[in-house]
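Limitations

Structures in this collection are predictions, not experimental determinations, and the ligand pose is part of the prediction. Treat each record accordingly. The example that follows, with NAP as the small molecule, is included so readers can see exactly what is and is not provided: the inputs are given verbatim, and the output is the predicted complex.
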Amino acid sequence: MRLLWHADSRPPSDLDEDALADLYRFGSGPILRANFVSTLDGAGTGPDRRSGSINTPADTHVFGLQRRLADAVLVGAGTARAEGYRRATRVDGDPPTMVVVSNSGRLPDGIRDKRDGDGPAVLITCAAASGERLDQARVALGEDNVWTIGETAVDLTASVARLRAQGIRRILAEGGPTLFSGLLGADVVDEVALTLVPSLVGGDHTRITNGPGLGVALTGRHLCEADGALLGLWAVDRS
Ligand SMILES: NC(=O)c1ccc[n+]([C@@H]2O[C@H](COP(=O)([O-])OP(=O)(O)OC[C@H]3O[C@@H](n4cnc5c(N)ncnc54)[C@H](OP(=O)(O)O)[C@@H]3O)[C@@H](O)[C@H]2O)c1
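Predicted complex:
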């Protein structure tokens, strides 16, 4: 992978693993970073309606690297179901907590089981969710790991505040598009990492956002290249 451009005027260079980790390391303050992949024609999924069919080895590598750098992965229940999410597993150090957001309270199947080395999982839901589903989630995750935050819908601002209060400072939001739009609407996203893969899929696919109109300005941090894919990091501009 090559660094093409950096906001701090670092010269272009080949990146070893340490240099790559340095680029993607979270800053010292609390940070919520969203991470996505998109084709050149703006699709967030491939023919199988999953992002796994459009990503590249370099994107997969940076996806895994950011997980290792994060305290928690935040994901919508839709993505967890579509992509067959499991809890994060230890690679080196403690695995991030897998935090699933669901209005319905339906815990995705893959999150129920805990394998050796798996990290904890939390379900964030709302008071309107079915009691039966929440009981099932409490059995699977433990009483303390099912959070009801919001009445008719999950309150994302309060959810992020609760994660922070639990000492979770580095949050990696892996989507999906509906959750990402909600997080942007709640103004809790600090950074966006995006890989543009060199492919076109046509058809009718989700973009990386799905929700009401937004006006979010971003400032570039860096841009890398690997096998024609462009991997960038942007900061949400709050100035
Ligand atoms: N290109 C990429 O990088 C990328 C990344 C992630 C996902 N994807 C793709 O995106 C597709 C899924 O899209 P999606 O928009 O349905 O994903 P999503 O946002 O993960 O899932 C939507 C579901 O998650 C829950 N949810 C989302 N936002 C919520 C909120 N603000 N409050 C409460 N619950 C919330 C709800 O679950 P309940 O129905 O249980 O209430 C909702 O139905 C999949 O095909 C996946 O492969 C692509």
